Amino acid sequence: MRLTTIAWVGESDALERRLLEAGGGGRVQVVVLPSFDEVARCRGLSAAVVPLNEGVPALQRAYLADGLAKAVGCADTLAYTEALPEAFGFLATVGALVAAVRETVGSEYMEGGARIAARGPGAWSALAALTQLRCAPIDGGADPMLGAIAHRLGVTLAPVRDPLVTVATAEHGIPEVQGKFTVQADVVRLHTVAAQLRLACAREPDIGAMRAAIGCG
């Protein structure tokens, strides 16, 4: 059985590493690298996964990137293929937050406003996710960059007096939704890593094992 090699650029005891190994079902080899500099020296990678708060330099290192990553301004996944000389950048966190919210509320779209109280890549990713969830209005006054990102996404920001939810960020800048319903950052991590495994391995990850890794199996 051929193993898919994925690099985790971060701490060896990070939850993301455990999720990658659990979701890989024995078919994924996770290499822990301390920095981006080591990624360039690592051969045979299918993907490199980085903490979201390192998303700006990750996007800068990508040879090409998808439209969402470029619009939001960061990437959390660098994928490698023989068709390209360098990595292709993706931003899995946006779709992961959308999936986590839908799983929690049991509906496809949100009905109500939101306030983004975070800053940095977690806040920018949250704006894109809330837009896909058709949440309105969205108050993004906490981060001055959100205005430019909203413009690229075609979204108008507005003050919200009584938001349905507030988006904060947890460890490594992962978005966490708090309010009339709550989406824990670890659940967003799970959906993010699941998307990264689908991208790197071209097959469905072991979601049950991943849920057990965060204690919600």
Q: Keywords, please?
A:
40% helix; 6-stranded mixed sheet; alpha/beta; 9 helices; 217 residues; 18% strand; single chain
Q: Can I get a quick summary?
A:
The protein has 217 residues and is of the alpha/beta class. The chain contains 9 helices and 10 strands. It has a 6-stranded mixed sheet, sandwiched between helices.
Strand order of the largest sheet: 2-1-3-5-6-4
Low-confidence stretches: none
Shape: globular
Average of per-residue pLDDT values: 93
Number of strands: 10
Structure, described:
The chain has 217 residues and is α/β, with parallel strands linked by helices. Helix content is 40%, strand content 18%. It has 9 helices and 10 strands. Strands 2-1-3-5-6-4 form a 6-stranded mixed β-sheet, with helices on both faces. Helix 6 packs parallel to helix 7.
Please write out the topology.
Elements: E1 4-9, H1 15-24, E2 28-33, H2 36-41, E3 47-49, H3 55-61, E4 64-65, H4 67-72, E5 77-79, E6 88-90, H5 92-105, E7 114-116, H6 121-132, E8 138-139, H7 146-153, E9 165-169, E10 175-179, H8 185-201, H9 207-213
Helix pairs in contact: 1-8, 1-9, 5-6, 5-8, 6-7
